[in-house]
Amino acid sequence: MFESKYAVPRNIDKLISKLKITTDSQNSYIKFLKKYNVIAFDEDVFDYSIDCQGESLPLEVMFGFSKKRDREDVIANNWMYLNRIPKHFIAIAS
Predict the structure, then answer these.
(1) What is the DSSP track for 46-70?
(2) For residues 4 and 37, is the Cβ–Cβ distance under 8 A?
(3) What are the residues facing 40 on neighbouring strands?
(4) pLDDT tens, 12-58?
(5) Are 29 and 78 in contact, with CB atoms under 8 Å apart?
(6) For residues 74 and 65, is the Cβ–Cβ distance under 8 A?
(7) Tell me, what DSSP letter sits at residue 37?
């Protein structure tokens, strides 16, 4: 169904620890990172979107660990969103 854009890094557990995930509900994201890392959605093949208060928002990429920090890296994006999303949330997609 999904195809990883990059291989899962060998030091994935160390990278995940930098996210400071504190809730059990985020464990499914950890499982995602360990299996897929970064997923770029091809809207020509599938239309992935989320419902946000009745509005359909298309997904472009599920963040993971990437050298393309401004678009794909989960740590870099969360630094960018610091003070713009609630404290115990993390940005996982755009």
Answers:
(1) ---EEEETTEEEE--EE-BS-S-TT
(2) yes
(3) 61
(4) 999 998 887 766 667 888 898 999 999 988 766 667 788 888 898 88
(5) no
(6) yes
(7) S
What's the CA gap between 24 and 38, in Å, rounded?
21
Q: What are phi and psi of 28, to 5 degrees?
A: -65, -30
Run of H or E including 16: helix 12-17
Q: Which amino acid is at 5?
A: K
Q: How far apart are CA 79 and CA 28, in angstroms?
A: 21
State pLDDT tens for residues 67-93: 887 789 999 999 998 889 888 788 888
